[in-house]
């Protein structure tokens, strides 16, 4: 599918386009390390939050542990600086099948979509490490930006609404990532540009998966909640943000 057709639903879903000032900042060569390191962390966070959703809502204790084992080598690399990143592709798999809880009416669908998504995010995580190696960028820990937190603090506190909200937030994060990859691709070299376009293809699918799941799980029409989070998201993108990151707001005051 051509990139334009992947992007048009994304543009209508997002309530604002990435401002030019963010693109101008992001294309500065001195900002490549922060963009790539933050991107790396976003891929791990994407895998972790998808895993959290299946662990909380869809599986029993044993399957939950199987899922946790899968993430361990990826988390150890970041949080403990342990292991060799080159060995990660061989570790990107589940050691056992994950079985839905018998009382979870949407369990199987949630597991099926999220397991594929986690696998892809962990593969992206590895691909970013590969790129960082090629560009001689060393990993260092950075502070998380306000973006995801800014949306998650508005998630309802009771179920199943909390879960529906988290899925909608997931859809926005994926859609924005997709839009930013498209915005960045023309301003970087071919290797990085091709990588961003390849990612855009899977993030476009991820955003759809999150939205579809949210609507399937909900007994009510989710469009009001989608609109609600769309406005919060757009505000985080359009307002001044002194902490420049992959999902940050406007980097200059005027
Ligand atoms: Fe990803
Ligand atoms: Fe994704």
Mind explaining what this structure looks like?
This protein starts with a helix and ends in a 16-residue tail after the last helix. It has ten helices and no strands. The chain has helices spanning 3-13, 20-26, 32-57, 61-80, 88-91, 107-134, 147-152, 161-184, 190-217, 223-238. The model has no long low-confidence stretch (mean pLDDT 92). By secondary structure, the protein is mostly helical. One fe (ii) ion binds next to helix 9. One fe (ii) ion (FE2) binds at residues 46, 121, 174, 203, 206.
Question: What are the main properties of this structure?
Answer:
254 residues, binds fe (ii) ion, mainly alpha, 10 helices
Alpha plus pi helix count: 10
Q: Percentage of helical residues?
A: 55-70%
Mean pLDDT, to the nearest integer, reads: 92
- What is the total tally of β strands? 0
Work out the radius of gyration. 18 Å
> What is the string of helix and strand elements?
HHHHHHHHHH
Quickly give the structural class.
mainly alpha
Strand composition percent = under 5%
Q: Whole-Å distance between the termini?
A: 38 Å
- Could you tell me which ligands this complex binds, including any ions or cofactors? fe (ii) ion
- Low-confidence stretches at least 5 residues in length (pLDDT < 50)? none
Shape: globular
